[in-house]
Amino acid sequence: MKETKWWLRDDARFKHVTRPYDTDTVNRLRGSVKIEYSLAKMAAEKLWDKLHTKKYVRALGALTGNQAMQQAKAGLDSVYLSGWQVAGDANDSLQMYPDQSLYSVSSVPTIVKRINNTFQRADQIQTMEDREGEIDYFLPIVADAESGFGGVLNTHELVKALIEAGAGGIHLEDQLASAKKCGHMGGKVLVSTQNMIDKLVAARLAADIMDVSTVIIARTDSLSGALLQNDDDERDHKFITGRVGASLGQRTKEGFYRVKAGMDQAVARGLAYGEYCDLLWMETANPDIGECREFCQDIKSIYPDMKFAYNCSPSFNWKAKLSDSEIRNFQDELSELDVKYQFITLAGFHSLNYSMFDLSEKYRDTAMSAFVELQQKEFEAQDRGFTAVKHQREVGASYFDEIAQVCTGSAELGAIKGSTEEEQF
Question: At the N or C end, where does the chain have fewer CB atoms within 10 A?
Fold first, then answer.
């Protein structure tokens, strides 16, 4: 098949991206009706711009629309939508799961939509109050596409759903979907290098069909991934334990090959994925600048303009691994390696759980004094832009008062006027 760069419409954006299909193929698959995916398009362009104009893009994992809205109010650059957090407390299966792709495939697109709906409401309230543009609520969302929840067709459809929901970026990992684990669990099974490339192509094709320049992040778990689904790709052969020539290597009772996990395998996969993605992410077991430097420098020897993503994971015991000064400088040092997307995957989970436990414990012991302590902190935070102390307004009561007045010509049934919130806050 003919290989093309994006059809010369935006050569700078896609200068290193290979597509094993041409524009005629995309146009045939697109259909006759042009549908605009405004939120996803705006988010993708905004994310790409931030990746190339900021020292690095800061993001926290969000579980809910309200968490994401507070991130926007506080001035963060992006929202990270973690599959781990969706598994743990925000999935369409209505379950609490570990991060093993046990939840419904629709779950992450649902949360992307929920976050974007919250952003839209916050923006509507702000515009109605004649404060248009004061806060950019539409932070670009980078969504976890896991291992694609199956093969190339599953991946293609999932990425389409994420774009429809308004995601600006997605990431895919090179684990076997049916055996998928959190990057910091054991027992990870890698798919072949070619299988991962096929999924990256499926993701890019979905974005091209929908005419959105989605930022695609390729993640490899091969630094610690010690099992391989099959030996179909010759590029994987040198990492298979016990393989000599064409003879089979060591296998588990499930039929998976044992491979030599480590930096060599991670770099090999990063180099193979580089021409099919926009950023590379190597999942790590420790916050190790030296390790990251080795990976980035080896990749940049072939792709000098490559940008990287890094999971500043809560799975690391940061204080046990780094000094205070090392922690303080960690992200700046990463940025010098062109690690441009830096995020704390499970920030929402840890923030939600600790803050509620802390309040509950204090409430148990001091009754209303506990909540008043929290409320006073909210009052003090108003000077820094915190607005949720006025909870009725925060969720749009005044916005719907305005709609009701337009429809009826009467303000008699307004919810805010005469409310406790108006009187006391």
Answer: N
